[in-house]
Amino acid sequence: MLSGKIRWVRPIAVVALVALVAVGCGSKKSSEEGDGTAATVPSMIKTPSGPPQAGGTLTFGTESEVSGWNPTVDRWDASGTEIALTVMDALVQFNENFEPSPYLAESLTPNADFTEWDITLRSDVKFHDGSPLNSAALKKSIDAFSAAALTGAAFANVAGTKIISDLTLGVMMKQPWAAFPNGLTGQAGVVPAPGQLDSGTEDSSRIPIGTGPFVYKSWVPDQAFDATKNADYWRDGLPYLDEVVFTPIPDSGSRIAALQTGDINITVTSRNDDIAKLTEQAKSGNLQMAASLGALDTNCILLNTEKAPMDDVRVRQAMAYAIDKAALFAVTETDPNLSADSVFAPDSKWYTKTDYPTYDVEKAKQLVQEYEAEKGPISFELGSTPDPIVVKSAQLLQQQFKDVGMDVTVKNLEQSAYITNAVTGAYTAQMWRQFGVPDPDTNYVWWIGANSAPPLALNMARNRDPQLDAALDLQRGSNDQATREQAWDTIQQRQTADLPYLWLSRQPWVIAAGNTVMGLDGGTMPDGTPSAGLIGGVMRVTEMWFQK
Asked: Shortest CA distance to 13 belongs to which of 78, 89, 66?
């Protein structure tokens, strides 16, 4: 049972996205060797000189704009999740140990075989429109998630819901789902007001109505999202701030410059050169910086395995062999210790060493020649976001692929279109960053073969592998650690065989703020115990305040 007394990014975060071989006999690292959750850059935050002070407007520079605020319709990346969790609460949140703990929910209780979960809500919580948070509102929300084209795949295992009492909803599963609470910490776990879901598609996306610490005031896309303090928030004494304004500034360097000039108070970045600059500034005492915690996102190349030439594994293998990571890391200023050959870090209890391809130009050329002898020249487009570092990375990879005989062009797209292309399949290869979650079951939705079908495929690589699917189902239905680790061994072996993703590096995030901003430790859970800090570029602003 997950009770309010127990402490629990990225969840099934329905589209918490962004851009940047033969099976070998793997050797498993001991689960005692670590969980891949150590921060890779230092955190340097100020100690408050007194208790929290109320008042003030926080201006937050985000890395992108979002299509809207209806969680069943709109695609949220890290920026979208950051803003949404200001006006909406999720059912579950992670504590400082990355354990799932009830947040808006009072408890989540499974039956013996994890085929049913009872979700009990906190009492006397109201939505911003005055309507009550109850099991009927939660049922409407989960049923809407299950029925929606975008989110239905994420809830495909949900067989149905039933109202047990005014505050308790039963959620029935088609097959056991032991890690279900992990999927309720972000977009898939927020509960919009029934009035928002009933307001029509345009208004439901334009005006969010939640139970969160701040209430929607205004939104001018590509300019600012403004929210004001919820005076009736269910967490007594919170929030401290009067207002929060989110301003999209796509370029990381421009966000850092805006922070240094005081145009914004706080921002996030995952760009390595900017992290290095912020680290020096924090060491000098000019600002504060908190590093990401938990499993890091993985930079990779996302491949559409249904689309030629990526539908031939030899092309995917040739690309993997052609990548000179040392040269790539020099361009991106990436610590070589962050190099990736799996979705997991080598110090993670889930990690397995496989025969993942390493840099070998001759092998790459041989595979290209074999393919071309049968099917002709290899030509494709490599997608990139407009971020200068991502563009440089894509251009370097373009040259490396050309060096082994492939004809590659680079195409830059704005981030929301980039994500749309991924889920609709309108791409061949794209720079990508994803998959950093405290519990790996959260990635089930992105990798299970059933989610590769049109029109919106959350399995964006369109990879179908029966052995991988069986292992995903095995780990999902069990809470036995040994069983789950063995399943994840198989998953990593199959991903090396299939190569739907070309792993590049693990990617830390940092959040940076002026010296007067307090609360960069992530705040607390409802019972007062510590909450997780920055995870996947997202940190709640609920307990941030200004030191006057």
From this structure: 78
Q: In sequence order, which residues have a C-beta less than 8 Å from that of residue 74 and are 6 or more positions away?
A: 66, 67, 68, 80, 150, 205
Which residue is associated with the tokens 């969010």?
A: 208
Structure tokens given for 368: 């290209």
Q: Which residue has the tokens 């991988």?
A: 468
Distance CA 304, CA 464 (A): 11
Coil vs helix vs strand at 506:
strand
- Nearest Cα to 149, choosing from 201, 185, 190? 201
- Mean of the per-residue pLDDT values of the chain: 90
Percent of the chain with pLDDT over 70: 93
Flag whether pLDDT at 418 surpasses 70. yes
Q: Is residue 281 part of a domain?
A: no
Report the alpha-carbon angle 542-435-181, nearest 5: 55
Q: Which of 143, 47, 109 is nearest to 517 (CA)?
A: 47
CB 238 within 8 A of CB 224: no
Spatial distance between the Cα atoms of 269 and 251, rounded to a whole number of angstroms: 9
Specify the number of domains making up the chain: 1
Residues 6 or more apart from 236 whose CB is under 8 A from it? none
Residue 225 lies in a domain: no
Residue 240 has pLDDT above 90, yes or no: yes
Per-residue burial over 316-332, b if 16 or more Cβ lie within 10 Å, else e, is bbbbbbbbebeebbeeb
Give the type of residue at 226: D
Query: Residue 309 sits in which domain range?
Result: 1-39+76-206+293-508
In this structure, the dihedral spanned by the alpha carbons of residues 388, 391, 392 and 395, taken in order and rounded to 10 degrees, is -160
Spell out where 327-444 has E strands: 379-384, 407-412, 429-434
Which residues fall within 8 angstroms of residue 479, CB to CB, at 6 or more apart?
114, 178, 179
pTM for the whole structure: 0.83
Residues 143 and 133: their CA atoms lie apart, in Å, by: 15
Question: Which tokens is 525 given?
Answer: 């859970």
CA Rg value for the chain:
23
CATH number at residue 366: 3.10.105.10
DSSP track, 24-69: P---BPPGGG--S---SS--B-PPPSSS-----EEEEEES---S-S
Check whether 201 has a pLDDT greater than 90.
no
Is 134 domain-assigned?
Answer: yes
Q: Is residue 217 part of a domain?
A: no
